[in-house]
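Q: My labmate handed me this sequence with no annotations at all. I'd like to see what the chain might look like in three dimensions before we decide whether it's worth expressing. Could you predict it?
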Amino acid sequence: MRYAFLVLLILSAAAPAGWLRADTIYYYCQPFETLSPEGSPPWLRASFENRTDSSALLRLQGVNLPGAQFASKFYFNFRSDLDPSLLTMVHESGLQALAVETGSDSFKANGDGYYDIRFSFDTSESGNRFVHGSLSEYLISYAGDLPAGTNLVELFLCMSKPGGGHGPYYTAAHIQGIPNGSGDEDSAWVQGGITVPTPEPTGAALWILPVGLAFLRRWRRPR
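A: Here is what I predict for the chain of 223 residues:
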């Protein structure tokens, strides 16, 4: 009985209610047309992190874009019964997009369908391209009322509207600057697969878990 009670105490310290945050993370690993970027996937990473129920931090990263390859566009979705034009995107740090656009089913990602949000980055050779190691962070807020029991991050977990031979997907990106062997450059369209959030324990859990487990080992040791 005492052993079972202690196990429950330890597990409760790491229960979901005590987690600091749960991000939605996308890794762009899969092209959805014939051409694939060079280098090993993932080529790009995007994450949405809760700040408050009505705000979130979007972080875009160039994970593995070798050579002169660069990302020119990122596409995201928003829940269809809400108005994406009420979203505000404020640049926080890193590379700033040339344009951030919103509109219901307004942006087509080539052979895939239609998206509600598009980030466009510089494509000129003399410009500031989104390359390997690039980081761009935007604080997103919503001016309307959120559905009860939801936070802003959850509202981006939507598929694109079908409109091509591929998809639908949660998110897509356009990677350019891929050498084709003849001195020219090609481009590829890739989609981002969602990962299961990795929770972070609270400060209490950080010390209760190891202390409790050590106590269990000591308590169960044969006398």
